[in-house]
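Dear Dr. K.,

Following up on our conversation at the group meeting, I've run the structure prediction for Nucleolar protein 10 from Halcyon senegalensis. I'm pasting the input sequence below exactly as I used it, so you can double-check it against your construct before we proceed with anything downstream. Let me know if the numbering doesn't match what you have in your notebook.
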Amino acid sequence: MQVSSLNEVKIYSLSAGRSLPEWLSDRKKRALQKKDVDIRRRIELIQDFEMPTISTKIKVSRDGQYIMAVGTYKPRVRCFDTYQLSQKFERCLDSEVVTFEILSDDYSKIVFLQCGRFVEFHSQHGHYYRTRIPKFGRDFSYHYPSCDLYFVGASSEVYRLNLEQGRFLNSLQTDASESNVCDINPVHFLFATGTAEGKVECWDPRTRNRVGLLDCALSSVTADTEIDGLPSISALKFDGALNMAVGTSTGQVLLYDLRSSNPLIVKDHHYGLPIKSVQFQRQLDLIISADSRIIKMWNKDTGKIFTSMEPEYDINDVCLYPNSGMLMTANEAPKMNIYYIPVLGPAPKWCSFLDNLTEELEENPESTVYDDYKFVTRKDLENLGLAHLIGSSLLRAYMHGFFMDIRLYHKAKMMANPFAYEEYRREKIRQKIEETRAQRVQLKKLPKVNKELALKLIEEEGEEQQVTRKRKQKNLPSLLKDDRFKVMFENPDFQVDEQSEEFRLLNPLVSKISEKRKRKLKILEELEAEGQEEEEEPEGKASDAESSESSDDEKGWVEEVRKQRKLLRQEEKVKRQERFKEDQQTLLKPQFFEIKEGEEFRSFKDSAKKQKLMKKTLGDRLKLEEKLGTLNVSDTTVGSKQATFKLKKTEQQKKQQEAEKQHRQERKTLRRSANHLKSKRGRGRLFR
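The predicted structure tokens came back this morning:
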């Protein structure tokens, strides 16, 4: 019997303890029981309380006489009689069982929900009837007043099967895409189902209408919780008329009062695993919640941990024996665990001797198996020089090796390696030296290029590691170890120019920070050159001084920026003066340009105008053409626009046009002079 204690609560593991090899004869087993006290104290509460491979669900009948469990492989159900402390019967099934329910007080009426959408009914003599539901089921509940079975699964509907009429009734239509679990309140028979969207829908079986909706996914996320996806409902249990406990797929348990939409308390398992089972212990006002790794018992009013159990194998289901301190689990292992916690209540009446045993037994946490035998492989036998014993009675073949007496093993090891103690001593000394070295200052090997940037990244990485340890987050990858940025610390072309204008303006406090890093760089270079390892840290300012410096840096940020800008202006002024002196010293020489054949030279202004015109947008050029008169834009009757362009004339056309214009002006002057002479002659005739 294994005894553990947490928060001064003793937990007795009745299924743990030393077990004997199956290949031992009965005579040797009796001899070991006489000699070994631990084997004599070993308790087998129920004979063959196990499954061939794993167990998935375990439940107790209402009269407390029968314990039923389902498991694999092959799919089967086993019934254990507590009054006889042995197995009553075993039945094999066609497919694996998702869950089952005992409808009667004893084992005479059982319903199994199987993987292949089958619902199988068993009576006292065995298989009775089998039917099928439309979608794959995940859970079901039995409504005693109406004899209805409510099935939930991979569908938005809740299927109802009436066992009195023997037919399916109208299903309930939920708002969810899928439902995972369901339960019926034992007092007022309210039906509740937990959905994949993290909501709990409550239905009244009398009117078949939804009467409530709880958003548990939103309530389960608090300031301390960290989740990866949307929490779905994985466990659901009623307690009395008003209390309900909900377990999520992200490891939170929420306790609700049905009169409020906000949870009374949210308990996090901190493992991120789905909650498998939720049970209520009314005597001490405890809630027993379990995921695949741990079983936690905590107070439902304060949330304070009462005790916890962490079995060796993953947990599939938890069953609390009514009105007692016994707890049973179905595991990912052949053996089903039985725990007895005296604080929760007395032992069941069929094993009342446990109360006397727990008072007499002392704490014995030893849980090793086959302490009198050592398992060795063929290679181990060859190293020990015992390969000639293969086939003799001193070695018992088992799997890929052999069992041998532990005393013979120790003798052979001492003869084969007499200096084993010296090797053990050297190894311990080496471990102690490594522990002391870890406390010293570790030399940092910096790259040849961008040393200050590498030192900055190392410091930031150390700060991030401290933060992630406090918050229990995953460490981010380092840039120094990333192959994508390896060239930045190897190629001199990627060297950061700290004297450039952009760098100085973007990093106004770089001067002070770089001075600190340069000091550290000098210290590291000296240590690398001398090859010394100093135990004390390099001299520097205390943490308080550094914090005060950081606050001063924040205050003088604006002044530092102004100073950098002023320095940049002065440097620019000096550069301009140097350029002016160079221009004065240089002699200007005439430059000659060659004109292409067939082109006329006008002036440099025309080419400059053309360049300016080409830089303008199309809209600006069109406006300019309109002003010059070479373009005319008008609206048409249809609503579109019409553009008319005038082609530019060549030099010859322009000369011809000017000659024509001059000719017309000459003709006009001749006509005017001729008309003037005619008018003078007419006046002279009148006077005559």
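Two things stood out to me. Residues 373-420 form one domain. The longest strand covers residues 54-60.

Best regards,
J.T.
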